[in-house]
Amino acid sequence: EDQVTQSPEALRLQEGESSSLNCSYTVSGLRGLFWYRQDPGKGPEFLFTLYSAGEEKEKERLKATLTKKESFLHITAPKPEDSATYLCAVQANTWETSYDKVIFGPGTSLSVIP
Amino acid sequence: DTGVSQNPRHKITKRGQNVTFRCDPISEHNRLYWYRQTLGQGPEFLTYFQNEAQLEKSRLLSDRFSAERPKGSFSTLEIQRTEQGDSAMYLCASSPLNSGANVLTFGAGSRLTVL
Questions:
Q1: How many CA atoms within 13 Å lie on the side-chain side of A74?
Q2: pLDDT tops 80 at residue B102
Q3: Which residue of A has its CA nearest to B46?
């Protein structure tokens, strides 16, 4: 069965202290891997889509990378406004009925302390 | 277009009552998803529509849950005979119909509290 796990569950960083979040996935065939950001009381907000191993995408202080079994979200010199829950999700590449289903991991709660 | 709209934002109900949530997706989006999210967890897939057709429903979804999308526009999610375990945030998302990976645009969610 398709599955997504994320680690760590929670992460506290000092402002400027760079780190990485991990997403491990098991799917029959990967159509896309997504990163979303979720602020308290709000719906998730799209950050990146990655399609194949070796691909990288960047946005401001965030950089997402993808291997065959994992994705990493690197946060460089974070600021307090980067505090949020970061969700990883996958979409399988299969012609069965789950073709369009997007499965989310449990998320990593990031707190950046000034 | 103001994005994905969900109503009501918060619903408090007594156990055993029925509740209905509404989602208005981005107008040009053909795909519509419902997810459930509890505190500290990621969104859990409930069901998915392409236009008016409900193409998939989670095996974990109780028969008390039903969703519709008449005319392929807005969608409703009804929960009958609510239980305390139904308390959660119910998220709606939409995406355009294309051949690539489905980037979802989420609404702000409808929070259900069952007393």
A1: 8
A2: yes
A3: A101
B39 Cβ contact partners less than 8 Å away, ≥ 6 residues apart:
none
Closest chain B residue to A44 measured between Cα atoms? B106
- pLDDT (average), residues A62-88: 97
Task: State whether A101 and B48 contact (CB < 8 Å).
Answer: yes
Tokens representing residue B105 in the block: 């645009």
Question: Which pLDDT does position B55 carry in this prediction?
Answer: 86
Distance of alpha carbon A42 from alpha carbon A34, whole angstroms: 18
Q: Which residues of A13-33 are buried (b: 16+ CB within 10 A; e: fewer)?
A: beeeeeeebebebebeebbbb
Structure tokens at B95: 């995406």
Give the CA-trace dihedral at A40, A41, A47, A48, to 10 degrees.
Answer: 100
A31: nearest CB among B42, B45, B101: B101
